[in-house]
Task: structure prediction
Amino acid sequence: MGTSKNSTNSSLFQWLGLIEDYDQPSDSTLPRVITLLASFLGKMIQKNEKTFHTRHNKEGEITMFHGSRAPSMTIHRYTERVYRYAHCSPACFVAAFAYIVRYLEIPSMSRRLTSLNVHRLLITSLLVAAKFLERKCYNNAYYAKIGGVSTEEMNRLERTFLFDLDFRLYITTEVFERHCLMLHGEMVSCHSRKLGTFGEVTCSCQAI
Result:
């Protein structure tokens, strides 16, 4: 039973691009996990902002991660840019995803992922994930440069993020697998939308 589960997980990790020599489409230069993460974050933003505009809900808590306006670069292009220049393993992006979810689910906080905060949350969570998981990692000044913020702001964002998470950076195997399955589910959702299951919603997973 355990062997079967391990084999399934190994296949999933390989498919997402978390294991070297993975099965990638020939026309893609990115691991699937990068494209799927960008699509998943984009969907979260779209859902949150649509709810806000249609129901006139409160936008949620304004944090240090909020900008005064949304960056011109989409989260899809931003995620790809960060992957190309950060030179950290694809697994760090799964960990960063888990940290973002953990951050948004902090009890007693009203936090939503929007176009105003997603870029800073992504670059900060990835910096933290790389420092925690990788043997070697670029410094804050480098991440600030590829992320489009000043070094001073990068330092503040990292410090705030760590304290908000109460420095809970350890991710169990089960939690890691769950977030991988969430991203795999995004691929299934994208294929369903391509078939018209969800009407006029357009799939953004161009590399799938």
